[in-house]
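[stage:ingest] chain + small molecule (LARABZUK)
[stage:ingest] validated
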Amino acid sequence: MTIKAKICGIRDDDTARIAIDSGANMLGFISFPKSPRHLDIDQMAQLIANATTYTLHKGYDVKGVSVLVDPDDTLLEAIVTRARPHLIQLHGHETLERVRHIRDRFKTPLIKAISVETRADVLNAAPYESVVDHLLFDAKPPKDATLPGGVGARFDWTLMEGYPAKAPWLLAGGLTPWNVAEAVSQAKAPMVDVSSGVERAPGLKDPSLISQFLKAVKAI
Ligand SMILES: O=C(O)c1ccccc1NCC(=O)[C@H](O)[C@H](O)COP(=O)(O)O
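[stage:predict] done
[stage:export] tokens:
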């Protein structure tokens, strides 16, 4: 089984290259000022441009993803025109109507993050499948969390059992090099996403953990 992987919260070119060379399929770049992984638009644009050039040079197919939280149209316009991501990940409380508007106006493939605590959270995501390219099922963050993602929280992976997917989807939340095989096996996930599980401190990626994570994914 070939499982695809997204490494989220990339903040520098060296880390992007390590992820690309280790077999990542997507790289996530975050715009959310409260996050230790936050990038301004110029930083994000430069990182995505450099990663894209490197990817083409190496002959790989790796997508750059801008991760945004309840973005307004002004931010989206700036991201789409300046950072030029392959995909945009919506990681806030965007409604179905809002996601449809973003799809129609900005014409960039979308990933919608869904916060999961119960089976109902998983099933209620179905209407989004017709307006996005991927869903990303992530753990609902703890009540006192200051971030909507990237907090290392995991949910009960068996909640995904028998999920009747009509769109490609990613499993996220608390994944590590040591639990990703078990997570994929329980959730039957076709793609995985990780951030804090490949860091040595919040916002500080660990190259060795990135390659261990991607090795563990390849071995599934
Ligand atoms: O990672 C962040 O700082 C972040 C901030 C705001 C919105 C989303 C964010 N991360 C989104 C991701 O895709 C993470 O990879 C996902 O939540 C899993 O994180 P982790 O549990 O740390 O692996």
